[in-house]
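Morning run. Coffee first, then this:
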Amino acid sequence: MGSFSLMHWLLLGVVAILLLGGGRFSNMMGDVAKGIKQFKKGMSEDDDADKPATRIEGKAAPEPTVQREAEPAREEKL
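And here it is:
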């Protein structure tokens, strides 16, 4: 009375396909496959963020700064 045998699982699968219909079952499994692909893609994007930038993807050179002339100090009159 423990677990199901292989024959029980096959019979359960056939009944599920008959009840849900072949197309609906196929769509459901396709959605599961898309979810797994999205999960793997998300995991690989995390790994890509850790890679150092290549020469082409490197940081742009900083823009030169313009120096302003110092303003004379203002004296307050009381």
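The chain has a mean pLDDT of 76. Good start to the day.
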